[in-house]
Write a structure and sequence with these properties.
Elements: H1 5-10, E1 18-21, E2 25-29, E3 39-43, H2 55-75, E4 80-84, E5 100-105, H3 124-136
Antiparallel strand pairs: 1-2, 2-3, 3-5, 4-5
Length: 138
Amino acid sequence: MDECVFCRIAAGKIPSAKIFENEEVLAFLDIGPVSDGHTLVIPKRHYSRLDECPAPTLSSLAAALSCTAGAVQKAMKADGYNVLCNNGRAAGQIVEHLHFHIIPRKTGDGLFRNWPSYSYPEGKAAQIAEQIRRMLEK
Ligand code: 5GP
Ligand code: ZN
């Protein structure tokens, strides 16, 4: 995965503003922040998407994500933060190496204002839940 930008960052071939590092995980500042302190948390090994990453690595990622998010919030004096993981082009993933964004938020900052939610018609939620449960069994 020599051409992958996050593999190259994990290998130290491209410089980054590092926040946290252990054997499996690296956290560093996003080069194009949405807000000050916008941080990326990645597995050092290359997995494209969340559902491809093995559970032990996800467990390390979750632990790093949690403590890094707390530190980012405190350091940036943020009122909150979003954790975002884009999977696939359709979902806005540009870098195809699994990563979690930690985006510090201030009250009234106006980011991500529109969450286009709607209601399911009668019976549709049960049907969709069943469709997803069937895939879990595979
Ligand atoms: P995505 O849209 O794939 O979820 O987000 C990829 C993120 O990676 C973007 O926010 C972008 O600014 C960041 N990014 C891309 N290339 C680099 C880089 O070379 N260094 C750092 N630190 N961040 C990068
Ligand atoms: Zn990679």
